Amino acid sequence: MFGLRAVASNVGGRLFQSLPFRGTRTQCISIKAGMDIPDNKSLEYALPYIHGIGRARARHILSELHMDNKLARDLTKREIVALGDELSKYIIGRELAVVVEKDVRRMIDIQSYRGIRHNDGLPCRGQRTKTNARTRKAGKRMPSGVRNK
Known about the structure:
Helix content: 40-55%
Number of strands: 2
Low-confidence stretches: 13-19
Mean pLDDT: 81
Distance between the termini: 70 Å
Order of helices and strands: HEEHHHHH
Shape: elongated
């Protein structure tokens, strides 16, 4: 009976040692400046780590390059350069964030409906706000004990 407990505790210790922790650093491949993808994933799932690329666009990029879906760490230098050239055709990463911010700023400046909703921190795509939109309205709550009479 005591031998079984020792084996069970040893198995638990081994499982605990083999679990990955959140703080572990993963190896990444730098495609272009500021664009890193994890090297332990296949390209179809690694490319969406770049802001502005989803799985559909990742598949499209791979088909444009006539590249099979392999692990990112198995890429040769020539394939990395070709991938970087293909990615330069798209607005992605920090460049995309700047464009979106500029568009939102323009809507706010011309006082369009969407601009006013952005400025007020409310949903601007027609969602209801009486019972939902908690994330957009999160900072505007009144204290729970205060009521208007």
